[in-house]
Amino acid sequence: MSRWMVPRLWLLLVALAPLGCQNDANRVVVYCAHDREFAEPILKDFEKETGLRVDLRWDTEANKSVGLYEDLIREAPSPRCDVHWNNEILATIRLHQKGILAPYDSTAAAPFPEEFRAKDHSWTAFAARARVLLVNTDKVKKDDLPKTLDDLTQPRWKGQVAMAKPLFGTTATHAACLFQTLGKEQAIDFYRKLKANDVQLVAGNKQVAVGVGLGQFAIGMTDTDDAWAEIEAKRPVVMIFPDADASPESKRGVLFIPNTVAMIKGCRNPDGAKKLIDYLLRPETEIKLAKSSAKQIPLNPRIQLDSLKPIETPQTVRALPVDFTKAADAWKGSQEFLTKEFALR
Hints:
By secondary structure, the protein is an alpha/beta fold. Helix content is 39%, strand content 16%.
């Protein structure tokens, strides 16, 4: 290369460098574990309002949350993601514990109760779902409807109860939360009884709900959004909130699992990430999710909606008294047990 080309090449690189920065400034990369049909319209509205392009990576139903979680850890030295919209909270807390998340004190997060915000502002929880039982009314009489999780271990339901593989998404979160609230021994006893009662394992919560709706199973453990889809489809089903009337001494209740949003440490577009976090935590977003088929429950106490019936809320039923941070600590033990007990992987 001739001497006169070196300075010209240097000037060209300097001139092009801002273009790369500008490209990052014009887009926000989002890793989203929330269902695409509910998340995509909200993110499209964000694009229209801000002019920022949203580049998305989704998780599969069968591998919900886990795939993106592993991607974020692997990419931590050189992050590709700006914002992580997770559909359950424990993986988010575990990412926080690994130092993957960046603090951001969004003014939009201020109204949320403290239990739904990280102390260092690295994540905020919003828009919850509940873990429910979906029951096929052609197979189960009204007087025989299960009311608690323990009812599923009764011999009368042998081979008729479906559950998603408990290594992913909210099913895995549910297990860790039971390990934390009930204690390891009692939680292990529950899952061993489920196994002895020939619980049917399927790919995901949606498959559980569809299977119940089609009469493949009598009862399924799933989430409110998947259960509601079967109700809207006019299937012969009813949704039960298990342990809704549990006494405080029982350490039982309905598990409500929120979405979370967080900025990734070292992300390429922190300014764009902050704009998206502010947008997702606005009351309008929770209202959209509540009024959609997702039927998600707003956690911002300033939001006043008409009844979400038949969806219950922590104000209308007994909520499982879970400490999500301690449940995240129980994650590894619960996963090791379930993997071995159900011969998974």
